[in-house]
Amino acid sequence: MAAHKKATRKTARTSPARSTSTTRRRRGVSKRTAKRWSQRVTKESDALDLKHGVFKQTSAKKIASSLKRSAEHSARRKSGAYRSALSMLTFYINRAGKTLPKTERSRLERAKVELKHQFGRD
Prior knowledge:
Helix content: 55-70%
Order of helices and strands: HHHHHHH
Shape: globular
Number of strands: 0
Number of domains: 2
Largest sheet: none
Low-confidence stretches: none
Oligomer: single chain
Distance between the termini: 80 Å
Mean pLDDT: 77
Structural class: mainly alpha
């Protein structure tokens, strides 16, 4: 009888399906929430109120001017306008990661330089 109890404990302890589901429930993390944290940060943080589709614009100058306008008029930012605009641009580039096409990445990198010019920080 003792051997039976020992075998039951071992299988209960090493069951991967049970431990994973218990961990997820305990933490309250689902796949959807875990993948979308950057979207929540963009909406709820004290960053900027951005114009919709600002990073999809065709020109680096347009992206930079839109970020500058948003940063200067935003009541949500805690630091200076230049720093907030550059931080949001960098945040977008970093979150896109490897999925960002080279052409779009280069346009966004040019927008960083243009943002420096527009704020007079050459």
